[in-house]
Structure formats: structure tokens, C-alpha cells
Design brief:
Low-confidence stretches: none
Strand content: 15-25%
Shape: globular
Order of helices and strands: HHEEE
Mean pLDDT: 95
Number of domains: 1
CATH class: Alpha Beta
Structural class: alpha+beta
Distance between the termini: 16 Å
CATH superfamily: Protein Inhibitor Of Neuronal Nitric Oxide Synthase
Strand order of the largest sheet: 1-3-2
Number of strands: 3
């Protein structure tokens, strides 16, 4: 993911996870809708603890990070 997009996405993830600290679905929805508007569709978001994943994504359009130690956020684009 390009540096500028990565920084913006990380800030968005932190904001969403803080705003919806008790509702991962709402946080994921906020991130997805914002990413779709800002960087074009089809972004996907998974937020939670203890999950595995196998995805297909566009080159340089994947971000996987931890928030608060145990909460993982995976954001990717696949059209």
C-alpha cells in the first residue's frame, strides 16, 4: 500500500475502533465506506480477535494491523 494511503488507512482504523469499541461490525462498516469513497470500490474489512484468513487482493492494496494489542484489522481491495 502506498505510504500516504497506508497512513490514512491506519488513522481511519484507529478512529473507527475507538469510536465503536464495543461494535466491530460498525467499525468495519465505517472503514469500508470511507475507503470506498476515498479510494474507489471494492474494499473489504475484517475486525476481530483470533481469526485466520485467506484472501485474494490487488497488489499493494492490503493492510493488516493490530489495535490495542489483541484486536486485528485487515483491510484489502479486490475488484
Amino acid at each position: 500500500m502506498p505510504e500516504e494511503m497506508r497512513v490514512e488507512t491506519m488513522e481511519l482504523c484507529v478512529t473507527a475502533c475507538e469510536k465503536f469499541s464495543n461494535n466491530n461490525e460498525s467499525a468495519a462498516k465505517m472503514i469500508k465506506e470511507t475507503m470506498d469513497k476515498k479510494f474507489g470500490s471494492s474494499w473489504h474489512v475484517v475486525i476481530g480477535e483470533g481469526f485466520g484468513f485467506e484472501i485474494t487482493h490487488e497488489v499493494k492494496n492490503l493492510l493488516y494491523l493490530y489495535f490495542g494489542g489483541t484486536l486485528a484489522v485487515c483491510v484489502w481491495k479486490c475488484s
